[in-house]
Amino acid sequence: MDFQLKYITDDIKLSHYEDKLFKTEVVFDHHMLVWFISGETKIIQADQNYLFRAGDIFLIPRNQLATIINYPKDGLPHKSVVMHLTIDKLRAFYSDLDVKPTVSATQKIRSFCKHPLLESCLASLMPYFDIQDQFPANIASLKIQEAITIIRTIDKNIDSILANFEEPHKIELSCFMEKNYMFNMPLEKFAYLTGRSLTTFKRDFQRIYNNTPRRWLTQKRLESAYYQLAEKNKRPVEVYLETGFENLSHFSYAFKKHFRLTPTELVTRHTKR
Q: CA 13 → CA 111, 126, 145, distances in Å?
């Protein structure tokens, strides 16, 4: 796997990836502003899937579970510029503004449709990745401020995301887990996103499901995989990527142990009908 990262600062980086496929399941601590130079990315969230290609610009809000699958495309590497919009930077930006954001129920990914102002701002960073000397922090801050200003000009409702500095509140556990079981996250992340300590999360989970989180998650993912293979005619390689398994061999092993046949055998059986 040829995966490289170049940093101008801790908050601005260039990602370069040349292998066939790179999958990660994440929940970002900061908002992520991304400009695609080449390649393709599929982002899977609980309520919606996204496909981004060269030239696309989008914002991934913080504290949102996602499976991200990166591909090279048309003989070109997967390459993107990523800017972290941290809470500290956003607090400083909004400190002199009279903004009272309306918190939206769901903070979805925002796409900016190759907007020329935003593309120009992010493209102007490219020469700095080749500079050997340390990049001046004040210039980095100015570039981040410029990007935030442009986003607020493009999207009049973006303050509901960028100016919201609250941490997750305690929410209904069963509703959250039924929507997000496919994300292969540490239990600590599930606990945090439902507004609980890990101890409280495990206790509430046992009370609701009469099962441990790990056993329930595995069974739920396998049941979802079975449905997608048998009813949606998906291939095993598609299903393991979208149901929280680390790799195809682990998926096949767990599937056979649970259902007493491999994913391929299930597909073959339904194909013959």
A: 19, 10, 16
